[in-house]
Amino acid sequence: MPNPNHSRPPIRFRGRSFLAVVLAPEAPVEVWLSDLDALVRRSPAFFAGRAIILDVTALAPGREELLALLGELAAREIPVMGLEGAGAAGQGAGLPPPLSGGRPGAEIAPPEAGAAAAPATAAQPERPTTLGSLVLDTPVRSGQAILFPEGDVTVMGSVASGAEIVAGGSIHVYGALRGRAIAGAAGSPNARIVCSRFEPELLAIDGLYRIADDIDPTLRGKPVHVWLDGDAMKTAILD
């Protein structure tokens, strides 16, 4: 029998932040699922090991429609950990919990299609500078993930294929950008991506992303500047 007078330490609660991928389907759902399938065919590891949030605000589904959509995602091995915008349809047993209050962020990309996925490892800041910036003195290797939501990230070397940088602000790469650059992840539409040699797998700023297949091939290998103009992603060669 446990001793009721025995002193127990208090329960500790610790916060921990994870960057989630938000899927926001639009009508018609069949077309959206077809586009999703095409994305997964190009990059089979897109959702591997990621926290997935399903935002159904644009659909306003009933309960049956929501269950059917969750079933379609489950069949594609895309587990949903939370719901946004589901309203009353998202209440009840057997459904992911409703979530609210998250800050906007950018989707996270997979390793290069057809390549063996290297285990992602969170890189420690090599040279922290003033608040709001992180400078990396060495190249970012394939399989590394740099997450710095506090501000800008500057890489003095290159970013390898299969590597990933997620910055709350802008991203500056003084070598080749061959991996994934996700800027403005803290909800910063004015964030920029600048690199000396443009060969990215994926670009994203403030939640708007572009994969390699959608990038102008004439820009590859050149110094490039990327920014947002409203809801459009713009690219230009640096003089």
Which term fits the overall shape?
globular
Largest sheet, spatial ordering of strands:
5-6-8-10-12-15-16
Major sheet details: 7 strands, mixed
Q: First CA to last CA: what distance?
A: 77 Å
β-sheet strand percentage: 25-35%
Integer average pLDDT: 81
Put simply, the count of helices is 2
* The top level CATH class name of the largest domain: Mainly Beta
Q: What can you see in these coordinates?
A:
It is a single chain. The protein is mainly beta and 239 residues long. Helices cover 11% and strands 29% of the residues. It contains two helices and 16 strands. It has a seven-stranded mixed beta sheet, with no helix packed on it. The longest helix has 14 residues, at 29-42. It is globular and about 55 Å long. The relative contact order is 0.11. The model is unreliable at 105-131 (pLDDT under 50).
Summarize the structure.
This protein has 239 residues and is mainly beta. It has 2 helices and 16 strands. The radius of gyration is 20 Å and the shape is globular.
